[in-house]
Amino acid sequence: MGLINEAVGRVLEIDSGTGVNFPFYEHAIQVDAIEPNPLMSNQSLVAIQNACIPIELHTVSAEELPFADNTFDSVVATLVFCTIPEPAKALQEIRRVSKKGAKLLLFEHVRMDQKLLGKAQDLLNPLWARVADGCQLNRNTLDLLKQSGFTITKVDSYYKDLFLYIECLNEE
Predict the structure, then answer these.
(1) What PANTHER family does UniProt report for this protein, alphabetically (predicted)?
(2) Which domains does the chain have, with CATH numbers?
(3) What is the pLDDT of residues 122-169, one digit of tens each?
(4) What are the phi and psi torsion angles at 150 (to 5°)?
(5) d(CA 131, CA 24)
(6) Nearest Cα residue to 142 out of 103, 171, 120, 110
(7) CB 139 within 8 A of CB 149
């Protein structure tokens, strides 16, 4: 998985779910994975045991990270910023715990710029959020990143801009 291969050094994975990314870390020396849902954390235990590198699981939210300032070399988030209740606060926390020059690597679904499709996402969002564990179908994660102070260095779009691969740097 390309995004995971970009993660180096000590890595923070945001809302790691069932640990689907764990087997793909090749250049990391350690992963601290956070997951606020204990049911998901329990499902990731087998993936942790089968990982090639040390993975430590923390049952905490992205809005209140229990790590010291300037701890991580890389941060990974895959399809999670749609469900984080306070994404701007989470990004502040990620910046705080990231070293200067750290990469933030994301793969996210976002609100589409195409007028009709974006409007459809807006209309479906209230129902979708109820059935999909709070997922916000129409969240504009790219705008949140632009406002957060990270420097966006790369954006690749997929499926008519529904999914974005985003690389950022913490330059503070």
Answers:
(1) METHYLTRANSFERASE LIKE 7A, METHYLTRANSFERASE LIKE 7B
(2) 2-169 (3.40.50.150)
(3) 999 899 889 988 889 899 999 999 999 999 999 999 988 889 999 999
(4) -70, 150
(5) 30
(6) 110
(7) no
